[in-house]
Amino acid sequence: MVTRRSLFAAACVWTLTLFGCSGDDKTPAPAASGTPSASGSAAAAPKAGKELLLFAWSEYVPESVIDGFSKETGITVHYETYASNEEMLSKLLAGGTAYDLIQPSEYTVEALNKQNKLQKLDAANVPNMKNIAPEMRGFPHDPELAFCAPYMAGTVGIVVNTDKVKDPIKGYKDAFSPKYKNRIVVVNDAREMVTWAFATLGIGPNDVTADTLAKAKPVLGEWLKLVKVFDSDSPKTAMLNGDVDVGVIWSGEAAKLYEQDKKYSFVLPEEGTHLSIDHLCIPAGAKNKTGAEMFINYVLRPEISKQISDKFPYLNPNAEARKLLTDAQRANPASYPPALLDKAKARESFRDIGKMSTDVDKLITDLKSAN
Question: pTM score, two decimals?
Answer without folding.
Answer: 0.83
